[in-house]
Design goal:
Radius of gyration: 19 Å
Helix content: 40-55%
Strand content: under 5%
Largest sheet: 2 strands, antiparallel
Number of helices: 15
Structural class: mainly alpha
Strand order of the largest sheet: 1-2
Length: 363
């Protein structure tokens, strides 16, 4: 990796595990909030500019010298752990920083050095995990789902660059544009692999709206970037599947047969990112209703302190699910991003301020 000026960042190593939170009593949750409804139609890049580089900087994860992110920094594990690359592209687009573009390019190049001939990616778990008595080899659905996680981040990053006038016209980004063009055949292979995995993913993720939305974003964003209507259509179908898992009374995305304030935060973030790219009015209407109801529910789970309550959660709570031997904590970063999106989509500065409060609490 060439010597470059470092991005001034506070790295949040959040990938797939974050700090654990504890259950708490309901009386410390904020009182009932007004029902916010989406009224604006902003593009993803518009949303990034509204959030601004100062806030986006707080979420950037800087890759190591090889371009690895997350758990891959300790030695390549799987491409799913490159999922936080979008934090770099978000900052690059908002700040118009060529060094951030180079960091992003390094993460993408590193990822595709691990691609197999069928479009999948190498899986190389660390020795300590392989030797653990609790280790279970991943099913094919696990690996395909992990690839969709990565592809959703890749597609989102590529589309934000493609929609940036600065990136498309600046002389200083010319080399990066050329490098991405050379990688397009590899992007196509990834998309073909995911399309071939479509049936397995639809079955594997059928009861997990957050994963269905990761799948949808992978198909739709890469399909849009690569001008592939077949992939875009697949993305729309996965969105519809996720929207079918919204609770008809309280409006949250159903996880594990009930509510979960961490996974609902993930789902609404992804749903709003898809909303920002889709043009079909009927599709956007269906999404608008689901996003509004699920985000209003998420707001109701945030305490006065900014903590996201885990009381009553089906998956993430003290003593709840673990991933690779580590208990899951609230993925507060995605809730923060969702609140920022929603605040600007509803013209509600108090919702943006709530996102600040959540971020301050967990930092």
């Amino acid at each position: 990796m060439n010597a470059m000026k470092l991005i001034p960042i506070a790295v949040l190593l959040i990938a797939f595990t974050s700090c654990s939170s504890t259950n708490s009593t309901m009386d410390s949750i904020s009182p009932a909030t007004p029902a916010y409804q989406i009224t604006n139609d902003l593009s993803y890049n518009d949303l990034l500019l509204q959030i601004g580089q100062a806030k986006l900087t707080r979420a950037v994860e800087q890759p190591d010298a090889d371009g690895a992110l997350g758990r891959n920094k300790n030695g390549y594990f799987h491409v799913r752990f490159q999922v936080n690359m979008t934090s770099i592209s978000d900052f690059a687009v908002a700040a118009e920083r060529v060094d951030a573009v180079q960091y992003l390019l390094n993460t993408i190049t590193y990822s595709f050095e691990k691609q197999n001939t069928d479009g999948s990616f190498e899986f190389s778990p660390p020795e300590e995990l392989l030797n653990s008595p609790n280790y279970h080899p991943p099913a094919i659905g696990d690996l395909e789902s992990g690839t969709a996680f990565f592809a959703s981040s890749l597609g989102l990053s590529l589309l934000s660059l493609q929609n940036s006038n600065w990136f498309l016209s600046s002389q200083e980004t010319q080399a990066a544009r050329a490098a991405l063009e050379l990688l397009k055949p590899s992007f196509e292979k990834t998309l073909d692999y995911l399309l071939n995995s479509r049936d397995i993913l639809s079955q594997y993720d059928v009861n997990a709206p957050n994963r269905l939305l990761f799948d949808a974003l992978a198909y739709y964003s890469l399909g849009t970037y690569l001008s592939r209507p077949d992939a875009q259509q697949a993305g729309l179908e996965f969105i519809d599947a996720a929207l079918g898992l919204v609770d008809s009374v309280d409006g949250y995305f159903i996880e594990g047969g009930g509510w979960d304030s961490s996974y609902n935060g993930v789902a609404i973030k992804l749903a709003m990112e898809l909303f920002s790219f889709i043009d079909n009015p009927n599709q956007k209407h269906n999404q608008r209703e689901a996003i509004s109801s699920a985000t209003n529910w998420q707001i109701s789970r945030i305490k006065e302190s900014g903590e996201v309550s885990t009381e009553g959660n089906t998956r993430v709570y003290e003593g709840g699910e673990a991933f690779l031997g580590v208990e899951k904590g609230v993925d507060y970063v995605k809730t923060v991003k969702a609140l920022y999106y929603f605040g600007y989509l509803t013209d509600s500065p108090e919702v943006v301020a709530l996102g600040d409060k959540v971020l301050d609490y967990y930092n």
